[in-house]
Amino acid sequence: MNKLIKYREKLNLTQGDLATKSGLSVRTIQRIEAGATLKGHSLNVLSQALNIPIEKLSGVENESLLNYKLIKLINLSSLPFVIIPLVNIVVPLLIMYYKKEINLITKQIVSIQILWTILSSIIFLLSPFIGRLISLQNELVLIVLIISVLLNVGIILINAISLDKNNSLRIKLNFSFL
């Protein structure tokens, strides 16, 4: 049975109900349920409409084939390098490609680190200017650095715990840089 049919029927939705909820046409849903490949925009809106992870709906990966211990290692490999920008991205990326564990979850892990590095770098660079405005120039830079590192450590650990318990990421993005 097609995964879309299974999830749609589990929620007691008709094809029309799902079309309305997702914004897709009934014909598109019929084609997907008949065996058309589910990808791109349709995959995203259907996973949101059904409130399920993209990887469960896509059928691209068989969850039983994923090496969750290695995925957890890829996630935790950023931990020692949270203070060093770019290394917290490169190390998991190298492990991911070297061990050939390239899937939606590992791409999300690396994408989170990319986004986090960009955002924390911008905030860190702006902190001296904001510090001058509130008379905490040097202190604010240090505070921003410490909070940034602690939040990144928290994200990594929360996702590691979620990988252990649910075989999925707790904190993830709606897009991927990879």
TrEMBL record:
UniProt-listed Pfam families: HTH_3 (PF01381), MamF_MmsF (PF09685)
Name of the molecule in the record: HTH cro/C1-type domain-containing protein
Protein's membrane topology: Multi-pass membrane protein
Membrane-spanning segments: 73-98, 110-134, 140-163
Keywords, ordered alphabetically: Membrane, Transmembrane, Transmembrane helix
MF (Gene Ontology): DNA binding
Domain HTH cro/C1-type: 4-57
UniProt subcellular location: Membrane
InterPro entries membership: Cro/C1-type_HTH (IPR001387), Lambda_DNA-bd_dom_sf (IPR010982), MamF_MmsF (IPR019109)
